């Protein structure tokens, strides 16, 4: 240290502790912080500006967050009836009252579906949709097989026609084919079988097994009498071949015709137009053809359902036909004299059957069990179609 350059600010008396020196020297008056300019090389302490915020205290204590209920972390949401309330940054959970067994069951069933259940439901829905689409496509495919008999393994031969059909289709719908069709050939060739019935009726029966339609009966209006004799003809073929679906279809056509005729005649008579009903002029000729086929069969027991259906036709028209001189003139023929007692008996039985069945179905068509009994007749097993 040099004696000529003593600095009063950095000089300290020898032999005295520094703390005593600081306490004995008065502090200079405080000045604004901006006006204090420390000199270069100065090691003295200077007062700091007062703190704006107390470093030992926080401005405000934030509320401690309440623990989140465990239900929020689970996959399942709260049970129905639990209400969640958020107010002022606080969450409040109100527990539901105790649930009964019934309410618990309904609550559990009301919970959202899991991914597994959704997948199962989507699979079942798509499966049901596929089954519905396939069932809807089956009739179209079967109809195409009738037009283009791809994979046919049976040839049905008649006097003037032959038809290539499929064993699975004809045996599923015809009892006669089930009993009389020869077994399949080992080499895969077609099996031939012969029908002695009229080729046209055989064609309509085979076509119905593929299309479920009878064009000569279905395409005409219900009140058209022209299809009555056609229905009688194909009914005989359907019974002999034991095609239950076709028998029921024909009976339904005849019943619809009777109902349509009853409505038409009633409305025309109420409008005083009974004399202008065209059916009375052309109907008797077609009735003659249907009655000739119906009563000409050897087994009247097998024709009983068709006779009762025709009883509905006469129940709707016979009273008005008797007022026509042309029809009265036809009754003088030998055929009508034989048929009239049978017609009246069938008409009475039709009315009785209609009254008994009206409260249930309003139909006189036999059910499946009755048709099975009819087609199981021993007479049919001895018939060679």
Automatic annotation (TrEMBL):
Biased composition (Low complexity): 17-40
CDD domains on file: BTB_POZ_ZBTB_KLHL-like
Region (Disordered): 1-135
BTB domain: residues covered: 152-218
Record's compositionally biased regions (Basic and acidic residues): 1-10
Polar residues: compositionally biased ranges: 101-117, 124-134
Pfam families for the chain: BTB
Domain of life of the source: Eukaryota
Protein's recorded name: BTB domain-containing protein
């Amino acid at each position: 240290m040099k004696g000529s350059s003593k600095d009063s600010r950095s000089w300290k008396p020898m032999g005295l502790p520094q703390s005593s020196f600081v306490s004995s020297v008065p502090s200079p008056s405080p000045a604004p912080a901006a006006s204090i300019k420390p000199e270069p090389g100065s090691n003295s302490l200077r007062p700091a500006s007062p703190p704006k915020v107390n470093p030992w205290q926080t401005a405000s204590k934030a509320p401690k967050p309440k623990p989140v209920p465990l239900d929020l972390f689970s996959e399942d949401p709260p049970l129905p009836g639990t209400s969640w309330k958020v107010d002022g940054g606080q969450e409040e959970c109100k527990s539901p009252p105790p649930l009964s067994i019934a309410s618990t069951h309904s609550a559990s069933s009301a919970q959202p579906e899991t991914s597994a259940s959704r997948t199962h439901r989507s699979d079942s829905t798509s499966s049901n949709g596929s089954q519905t689409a396939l069932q809807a496509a089956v009739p179209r495919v079967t109809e195409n097989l009738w037009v283009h008999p791809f994979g046919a393994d049976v040839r049905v031969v008649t006097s003037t026609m032959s038809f290539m059909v499929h064993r699975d289709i004809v045996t599923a719908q015809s009892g006669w084919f089930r009993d009389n069709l020869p077994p399949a050939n080992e080499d895969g060739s077609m099996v031939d079988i012969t029908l002695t019935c009229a080729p046209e009726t055989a064609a309509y029966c085979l076509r119905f097994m593929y299309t479920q339609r009878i064009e000569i009966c279905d395409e005409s209006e219900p009140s058209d009498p022209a299809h009555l004799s056609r229905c009688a003809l194909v009914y005989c073929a359907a019974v002999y071949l034991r095609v239950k679906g076709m028998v029921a279809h024909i009976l339904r056509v005849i019943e619809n015709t009777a109902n349509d005729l009853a409505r038409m005649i009633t409305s025309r008579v109420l409008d005083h137009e009974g004399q202008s009903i065209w059916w009375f002029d052309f109907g008797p000729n077609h009735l003659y053809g249907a009655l000739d086929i119906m009563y000409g069969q050897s087994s009247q027991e097998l024709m009983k359902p068709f006779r009762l259906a025709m009883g509905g036709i006469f129940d709707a028209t016979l009273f008005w036909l008797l007022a026509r001189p042309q029809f009265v003139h036809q009754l003088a023929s030998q055929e009508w004299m034989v048929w009239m007692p049978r017609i009246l008996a069938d008409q009475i039985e039709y009315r009785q059957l209609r009254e008994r069945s009206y409260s249930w179905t309003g139909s006189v068509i036999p059910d499946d069990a009755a048709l099975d009994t009819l087609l199981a007749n021993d007479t049919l097993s001895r018939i060679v179609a």
